[in-house]
Amino acid sequence: VGSGGEEDVQVDLTPFVGLKQLEVTAVRLAALKGLDSLHRQLTHVVFRDGAVRSLDEVVSSWEKGTKVSWTALETLSCQYNNLTHLTPALGGLPLRGLQLSHNRLHKVEHLQGC
């Protein structure tokens, strides 16, 4: 999923009922409609090039009042998002791989349990 840099782009993920892997480039997380119906089955997710402003936005996502639970997520990549800190909630994800290169992280913590 990618955009031409348009701020008001909405991407409907609901037709992709069997989706296991998702790559989002330059589309804000808030523009993804239907993520709440996929979060339990996604195993590999990539948010890059400004798709997220913070990892809190990913880990503690809410859509239509429902907390997104990443129960199947094995790998998460958030490259090139200008992230400045990690969230303690990362420790609650069942991750086997985490890619955070090309951000503005100065201190790496809160990875217990990953």
How is the topology of this model organized?
Elements: E1 11-12, E2 21-25, E3 32-33, E4 44-48, H1 55-59, E5 62-63, E6 66-67, E7 75-77, E8 97-99
Parallel strand pairs: 1-3, 2-4, 4-7, 7-8
Antiparallel strand pairs: 5-6
- pLDDT < 50 stretches: none
- Binned, the helix content reads under 10%
User: How much β-strand is present in the residues?
Assistant: 15-25%
Mean pLDDT: 84
Strand line-up in the sheet with most strands: 2-4-7-8
Specify the structural class. Answer: mainly beta
Give the CA-based shape. Answer: globular
Structure overview:
- The structure is a single chain.
- With 114 residues, the protein is mainly beta.
- It has 1 helix and 8 strands.
- It has one helix at 55-59, and strands spanning 11-12, 21-25, 32-33, 44-48, 62-63, 66-67, 75-77, 97-99.
- A 4-stranded parallel β-sheet has the order 2-4-7-8, with no helix packed on it. Strands 1-3 form a two-stranded parallel ribbon. Strands 5-6 form a two-stranded antiparallel ribbon.
- The longest helix has 5 residues, at 55-59.
- It is globular.
